[in-house]
Amino acid sequence: MSVRIRVNGVEKTLDVDPEMPLLWALRDVLGLTGTKYGCGQALCGACTVHLDGQVVRACVTPVRRADGHAVTTIEGLAPEGSHPLQRAWVELGVPQCGFCQAGQIMTAAALLKAKPKPSDDEIDQSMAGNLCRCGAYPRIRAAIRKAAGMPEGER
Amino acid sequence: MSQGVVRVTRRSFLVGLNLSLAGLAIGLPALADEPSGRAGPSPRAAAPEDGPGLHPNPFVHVAPDGTVTIVCHRSEMGQGVRSSIPVLIADELGADMARVVIRQADGDKKYGDQNTDGSSSIRKFYDDLRYVGATARTMLVAAAAAKWKVKPETCEARGNMVHHAPTKRSLGFGELAEAAGKLPVPKREDVKLRPKSELTRVNSPVLPLLDGPAVVTGQAVFGADLKLPDMLIAVIARPPVVGGKVARYDASRAMKIPGVKRVVEMPAATRPYGFQPWGGIAVLAENSWAAMRGRAALDITWDPGENAVYDSATYREKLLASVREAGTPYRNVGDVDAALAKAARVVEAEYVVPHLAHMPMEPPVALARVAGGRCEVWAPTQHPQAARTQVAKILGLGEDAVAVHVTLLGGGFGRKSKADFAAEAAFLAREAGVPVRVQWTREDDIHHDYYNAVNAQRLRAGLDANGKVIAWHHRTAFPPIASTFGDVDKPAITDLQQGVLDVALDVPNVRAEGCKAQAHVRIGWYRSVYNIFHAFGIGSMIDEIAHARGADPRDVWLEIIGPPRTMSLQDLGVEKLVNYGEKLEKHPVDAGRLRRVIERVTASSNWSGRKKDGRGYGLAAHRSFVTYTAVVLAVVPDERNKVRVDEAWICMDAGSVVNQDRARAQMEGSVVMGISNAFFGGITMKGGRAEQSNFRDARIARIGEVPRKIHVDLVPSDGPPCGVGEPGVPPVGPALANAVFALTGKRIREVPIVRGLFA
Fold this sequence. Notes:
The complex is a heterodimer. Chain A is of the alpha+beta class.
């Protein structure tokens, strides 16, 4: 079966098992490796992408669910890595190993779209599904606040 | 890369950020668009030994166009080593970072020790790396001086040029490279290091995070991001119990899954397990999903083997029984038994810490190609030389026929020092005759880890009538890492160096013993290793003594540590101290430094005013990797977990620090990982199988479960660099248990603390 997806603004036709998780369609078929595998069960958030602007965990989203829809990955979040979150992330030195960061940024981007000035509790709630084993959480919070034009807060 | 995807160019991105980092080899394309199909972290950067110009050692090459290639021989796993080592070399050389290309080293003994482990990249290589840069600088200066017929001492190297101020002449490194390359390489004693004040970048509070732009745009290349033509993905069904075997299997259903190409039986692992692959049945497929489905369709009967006896509940009792009997004494001062007998009061307690699993966000993965009697491996490995050795062994090749390229690591924490996953990929690539990438699932990672050792301790402190500690008796039982490599069933003196033998105690009678513990799983290095449980036992015990006396824990910590002094082997009462491979003269056991981090952290946390804000405060301190760290945590009641850490203060004395911002990030991360370890941590076994399987039951802290404020204080120092990556972790666990006691009155002596809170 073929699946048609608008990926980062470009129409793609994929000839894949419709049950294949979107994660593997992105990584193995389309070569978009910025989206990561971390758990396979929507427990860690490393595979977070946007489906029609909404956060989904690509590791448990069958690719058929994206048929006829738009998917945004970290590679397509903003031209030239210019999203305020990407800038804040680099300026505050958020990444340690970096592996979970695409998922963190994609979740945070959806949060800021819905809540341009999120409270700390709202950050906690939205980001609760994105694990970081290196423990970059304090800087993730600071970078979200900075990107939102709020004081970074003490960390 | 797919058409239409916005291609982030590094230069434009960096220009956008107004950072002057252009030229760094970061963010490689995936292999798919490499016609040769060959890549590593900096595949196309000229190797320093190739091409014209100056190459005085394997680490530096100056090309005639002025490009300075610097090799990073240690693996990047989040500690920021790629943003640190090359900058140190460039500072010493006088290179302009905009002209520097960083090349990640393959596994090769010519670079010295590459095992990125033990918090040693800066600690052990600081001087050597400075000489690497200084040697190149000396030769460039000599070439310029010869050309100008002036004395080298009157020249200066900075900004990628050599300058002669008296005559206002300058020559670029590139213009000098070929002449400098013809000069003899000076001996180390003829090379002068710069004064530390001239290491301008290293002295700055924030160094740019060189891989940051690639990471935030999804361009950074980790192990699973590489692809070769005709490559298959392998997912392996491994025996659930280590040392188990395949009794029989049927792959017919698996072979019917579309995309599945082959099924291969792996060689079974035999004791001692070392870095051997774990065995099992591999399913090779065109994509990851097909390989995973194929594995699920395998019908396998396992022969569980001798380790099926392993049951954590029973084993816990065995470990406790072990510390209730005498072990092998490794530290002895005075007469502990006599002092305990005459003590006015004895405070005693037992502590238990379970296995911990590394769980890096990137599970193990490796890509291998075997062709023409050679093997190439690309892997997120902390230890490329060990991977090379193990791959050569499993293929029956000489090491010269094996190349190991290092990708970025999506976390390591010690797991990726082991070569098992690289060897799996190499074996399968040979069997399949095509390149193979082995992908571990999260379940594989948790079930087949090299766990941190499970531990029980018994501590007894004898107090005189005034409450002063006159006897300190410490027993610890854990299966040591040596059990993974040989027939060893108790810790050696070299194991107790980690936080038992090197504890500064101002106590006249001390004995520490290592007690028996048989291993039934693979034990391995885990960030901070045995220090995690030893700091937990000792740090909890000191707090217990303070509360038994009704004294301030801070005062009791300082009293037990005693006055500032360095301690000899005799003072410590030990025959030898490995001291993390450092000479005691250079890195002594320094009670003054341990005191100072406690004094600083209790000052910054307003410890003396702690009883006024309704939070529970806990303090602990520890020496590890020759660094001194102290932590104060403030905890508050929490609806879901009963207790939450609200604020943290961490003070570290790690000597000279090359990259202050990364050191701060390591301390922040250490607080988070320390909370994960102590509050949620623990892998348990039943029938030899791990009972946990994914983040659902093997929990790590989420953003809302760690403090919003983590205050980091680095002690300013000109001393020799000490470890940074690990020493932040050990004091966090006991500080948390002590804070929980302060808030709730509940003394929790076993990890995970959350279980004790709900018990």
